[in-house]
Specification:
Strand content: 5-15%
CATH superfamily of the largest domain: HUPs
CATH topology of the largest domain: Rossmann fold
Shape: globular
Strand order of the largest sheet: 1-2-3
Largest sheet: 3 strands, parallel
Order of helices and strands: EHEHHEHHHHEHEHHHHH
Low-confidence stretches: none
Number of helices: 13
Structural class: mainly alpha
Bound molecules: tryptophanyl-5'AMP
Number of strands: 5
Number of domains: 2
Radius of gyration: 20 Å
Length: 326
């Protein structure tokens, strides 16, 4: 059976972009693939976190996974920091990755520019991500397009390692959805919808209230030509709303355009708000039921057992190939 794996950072409530880019794809594929889904808490600490808030967010993210229909029977679900092999493997990979490759990563360039006191972890972040992926010999990595470059780096690292030490890793591929590869900010639709956006009116969170969702979508930036047409260059706002609708309704961009061809922008926005509200209210209902359930711990206990066993094998193999230990 082929394998898929992805992780999300537990830094605040996830956005509609995270849901469409990563979680929804995992749900869609969980019947066909051996699926691994983890909480990337070690990645979260590459920037400053309040420990109490981070701890709370980890548990909340797990409950969100389940509320979004991630099936714990079909997924190995675990917390990254509970599997210490990831960081051990990451170190071995770091010693086989050039500094230049890391400084060329777009996300590193952006984030280090914004904070001159950035940590060394921010630079090596993609290598830890490569370790997360390569440890389990996965075939596909469902991610939003913003993480594609990191998955490609993981491929390069694997190819290079295999060349140097002999066959050790499977070469993974990013799995990017046809629609909704990048959900954009509602206020500034040329920028990615991001948890850290300055104006939170542009960002829909999975646990936003119905009122917040409707108000954010109705106020989304559009243009003045009143045509529901997908054209990212000239109509980024409307294209983003088409993307959101098409991803949630699971119909193509073309069919979405056709369905709403006679609608005004206000009517179309209402239809987008309706489908987002329907989806998220359903998720929230499930979330509220499970957030305090003991089942959450059991799921993590089972997941880490499976993940650790596999990771240990890969770690031992790498040590042997690299000549480490006795
Ligand atoms: P993170 O936590 O920033 O984002 C989680 C996932 O959500 C996707 N995403 C989006 N997709 C569509 N539109 C958006 N606006 C949007 N914003 C975010 C991201 O592409 C991602 O798939 N480094 C990763 C976490 C990670 C990981 C891994 C992922 C750590 N190790 C190994 C895959 C495999 C990250 O920070 O994602």
């Amino acid at each position: 059976m082929k394998k898929i794996l992805t992780g999300l950072q537990p830094t605040g409530t996830i956005t509609l972009g995270n849901y469409i880019g990563a979680i929804k794809q995992m749900v869609k594929n969980q019947n066909e693939y051996d699926s691994y889904l983890f909480i990337a808490d070690m990645h979260a600490i590459t920037v400053k976190q309040d420990p109490i808030v981070l701890h709370e967010n980890i548990k909340n993210l797990l409950a969100i996974y389940l509320a979004c229909d991630i099936d714990p029977q079909k997924n190995t679900i675990f917390i990254q920091s509970e599997n210490e092999y990831h960081t051990n493997i990451s170190w071995m990979l770091e010693c086989n990755t050039s500094y230049g490759e890391l400084t060329r990563m777009t996300q590193f360039k952006d984030k280090s520019r914004k904070n001159e006191k950035f940590t060394a972890g921010l630079l090596t972040y993609p290598v830890l991500m490569a370790a997360d992926i390569l440890t389990y010999d996965v075939d596909y990595v469902p991610v939003g397009i913003d993480q594609k470059q990191h998955v490609e780096l993981a491929r390069d690292i694997a190819i290079n390692f295999n060349k140097t030490y002999g066959n050790t890793f499977k070469i993974p591929e990013p799995l990017i959805t046809e629609t909704g590869t990048k959900i954009m900010d509602l206020i500034n639709p040329t920028k990615k919808m991001s948890k850290s956006s300055e104006n939170q009116n542009g960002v829909i969170r999975i646990l936003d209230s119905e009122e917040e969702i409707r108000s954010k979508i109705m106020r989304a930036t559009t243009d003045s030509d009143n045509q529901i047409k997908f054209d990212i260059e000239n109509k980024p706002g409307i294209s983003n709303l088409i993307n959101i609708y098409s991803a949630l309704a699971e119909i193509s961009i073309k069919d979405t355009e056709q369905k709403f061809s006679n609608y005004s922008y206000a009517e179309f926005k209402k239809a987008v708000a309706d489908i987002v509200v329907e989806k998220l209210m359903n998720i929230q209902e499930k979330y509220n039921k499970i957030i305090n359930s003991k089942e959450l711990d059991d799921i993590l206990d089972n997941g880490i057992k499976v993940a650790k066993k596999e990771a240990k094998e890969k770690y031992e193999l790498m040590k042997e190939k690299m000549g480490l230990g006795r």
